[in-house]
Amino acid sequence: MVTKCNEATEPKYSPSNEYGTISLLDIFGFESFKVNHFEQLCINYANERLQQKYVIDNFQAIKLEYEEEGINVFDFSLVDNTDVMELLEGKTQGLITQLNEECVKKVGGDENFVYRLKVLNSDSNRIIQDHLHRPYEFGIRHYAAPIKYDARK
């Protein structure tokens, strides 16, 4: 499919590869592989952000309209991912904050990052701690699915 997209978008009068390639991002396409690293975390984070924007833009407006008209509203918590975003972006305990702090330490490391993330977020129902036996593993119950990550790369 990527080859077809690149062929369809390549300028007709130019040598191949002179302009590079076109890459597509499948939004709302959470990734989960046998081993998930930082790249998958970034993709899944972007999709969590898109999910939140979609929910706010669409469901919030509909919810307010329904409530004003006295119509029973569906359980909004089923589509709300605020708690996942707090785990990822939280100012003091969030994954991104913890990763930034670990990167500036002289002796920072993958295992210390995972340990601090788990300890600081032990009360979050979105952090997965069960069945993760290696000190560099952590998991997140994303909106779309639970995903285990390997912090070594």
Describe this structure in words.
By secondary structure, the protein is mainly alpha-helical. 44% of the residues lie in helices and 8% in strands. A 3-stranded antiparallel sheet has the order 1-2-3. The longest helix is centred in the middle third of the chain and has 31 residues. It is globular and about 60 Å long. The two termini are 28 Å apart. The model has no long low-confidence stretch (mean pLDDT 85).
Intertermini distance? 28 Å
Say what oligomer this is. single chain
Tell me the total number of β-strands: 3
Order of helices and strands: HHHHHEEE
Q: Which secondary-structure class do the elements indicate? A: mainly alpha
Give the % helix.
40-55%
Calculate the mean pLDDT score and round it. Answer: 85
Number of helical stretches of at least 4 residues:
5
What can be said about the biggest beta sheet? 3 strands, antiparallel
* Beta-strand percent range: 5-15%
Cross-sheet strand order for the largest sheet: 1-2-3
Rg over alpha carbons:
20 Å
Which residue ranges are poorly predicted, with pLDDT under 50 across at least 5 consecutive positions? none
The dominant shape is globular
Q: What is this entry, summarized?
A:
By secondary structure, this protein is mainly alpha-helical.
